[in-house]
Design a protein that fits this description.
single chain; 2 helices; 53% helix; COX7C/Cox8; transmembrane helix; mitochondrion inner membrane
């Protein structure tokens, strides 16, 4: 009983001493991309007509299932 607790205590101190660190992202690498605000999204929210494009996309995406359901309901068999 004491041996297992001693082993756990020893492993805990080993894990606590381990230094977790990361290296700086290298911009020349094909696996690292630029970081910062708005760099992780696939569109540019700073364009002139972003507001209208965003809401057109949202209305289309949210309204399409309802429009399809209404069309299927009123469709003749």
């Amino acid at each position: 009983m004491y041996a297992s607790s001693a082993v756990r205590a020893r492993l805990a101190t080993v894990a606590a001493r381990r230094g977790f660190s990361t290296t700086r992202a290298q911009l020349g690498s094909p696996y690292h991309y630029a970081e910062g605000p708005r760099s992780n999204i696939p569109f540019n929210p700073l364009t002139k007509h972003f507001f209208w494009r965003y809401w057109a996309f949202m209305v289309t995406g949210f309204g399409a299932p309802f429009a399809i359901a209404v069309w299927q309901t009123y469709k003749t068999k």
